[in-house]
Amino acid sequence: MAATVRIHRAGPGYALDEPGTFLGSGFFIAPNWVLTCAHVVRSGEGDEVRVVYERGPGRGTSAVTGEVATVVPDRAGIPVRGTWPSPDLALVRLREPVDHDCAYVTERPAAYYEESVVLYSGWSVVGGELRRLSGTCTVQGTLGGWSDDEQIRLGGDVLPPGVSGGPVVDPVRGEVVGVLKSRTDRGLGGTCTGVEQLRSLPVPAGEPAAEHDDPYQAVFHAHDRYHRDRQRHPDTDRGTWADVQNQLGARPGRALSPEERTQLLGRLADLPPPVSTRALLGVLESLLGDQAAIPHPAPRGWRDGLGALYESPRQDAALDLVLDYAMRAMAAERPFVTPGTRAAERALWEWVRQTAEGRPGPAYRRRLGQQWIERLQLTPRGPSAAEAETAHAAARSADRAPRLFVLLELEQLGWEPGRCDWHVSVGRPAGEVVRLRDGERTPLEELPAVLGPHLTEAFRQCDEPGRPADLQVALPHLLLGLDVDAWRPGPGEAPLGAQRPVVVRCADRERLPEPDGTPLPAAEPLPADEEQREREARWRWIHAHGAQAEVLDCEDGLRVPVPAAESLRGLPHKTVPVLCRYGDHRFEDDPVAIVRIVHGGYGVALWRRWRGQSDAVCGEFHRRAGDTVAGAGGADRLPALVHALRAGLHEGRPETYWAHGIALFYDDPRRPLPGAGDLLEAP
Prior knowledge:
With 683 residues, the protein is an alpha+beta fold.
């Protein structure tokens, strides 16, 4: 019910509760993805709709713009006469990231559905007002056969107008099995489409280079990671799908508990998808032999293959069958790899090893261990540091060339903390900076409007065709959460972070308090030589040999204190600190965390500004931040990569939504800010 949404026509001036703009229902299938009917979204105008959803129990409704990403069958531009042909499904991706609940979607094909009663949820106009409805229907058979036209016939209840696109739920197993498609003109019931019909989405042409190149894989990988991460997340009193599943006492396959099933699907979703449907069918045939019954449409993802095992004649997905399937997924050919693929394989192996303990027997466990050892021997362990540097040299040569940059310095007034003095300068490749403009006592909320014209002029002096200059923002440590990258220099313009690389520096590094929060005297000298050497050593390493992210303030969704500066100094030089919950003031203050990171010798760190949702799932941020840092090859690529993420957020690309509120601390210890020994030329 919480995941069920209503869909409206897009356009300015529409109230959220306006029945005249209401098109139908839908539900969140994955973070920032809505599944509905094609005829619902195509009854609006163009490819945009408004999605109205609940922000949480008792928190009211909100609306967000969504883009129709794909419909099946695709009849764009062709007038629809009568009912939309099956499967009549559409995926809508939101234009901006929001926090919401997601329904749990079965991995079993509807062809194997045997229950006689289903639940449904949706919206309709009742008494002139929009109301959310739910009810039960009886399964009365199917329309069609083994084809894309197959639908489940429903009876037993009147399906009111507007519920089309809502979820159909198996109440015994607690999972969505279909999407309401139509209602009968007279009488009870209607039809629904099995969710497995999404497998008929077109396969992208060419070889995919990333997960989001195939919407089907992107949506269901995000779905399975969401439910895995929700199970890990303790910061909410609401039960997860696996918690409720345990209460129901029924599940497909006798081998896995609900928690094990959630964990396995989440780990499979961390892997790249199968290289093709044919390759996945080969895996199933190698396990089931002549007994393999391939449903229609054929499986496309790892979760689909697991669902096919549930219906196998081999003891209803016995544990050894599931574990063998996981091992084959681990060793399968990859359409692409990411920096996290190796770690995902190891995590899947750990799940297999722990799940197998004490159950299938010692001989079987020895065979699994031997397969893992063989996998280690066959898998390249990755290039050496020197080889990695050579591979990235061509891509990074342009970034290494000295370039002009824009420097914005903000000085918070101690007696007026809500106001700042500011300076806009142009930095030259040799290191000196030229001051362009100064301002005094500007209120924080007025800074974007006041500084917009001056920053625009500075950018004009520095930008080159196709290569916008970096913006370095020097902030006192108490203001490092300021969202300068979200400022818009002029009306209708894209945010600064979407236009160019924006990084933050610590303006009061030489006057920071001690790591435990004790203030230093105002006249305290520069940091000790040893601390400065540590900064420079770490800076050189992560630029020459690559880096690895280390989340410091969050473990499986639980807020934890950032380690003391002394502990941080003991981490490897390749470490880039990551803060998941910067701005979550319920625990340790953010300035203390930053002080410890700076005193620990770090010049590069990554964080996201916390938006205050206590039950937000953060596993995707951990995973993607780690891949971004590891995939950079060298820290000098991070400003450009973060810029690309912000540009993707501005363009509404769901694969970048994990980076909402991301900030990059990039403070070169070899180039002090003006006033700390650097040259400063007059205007």
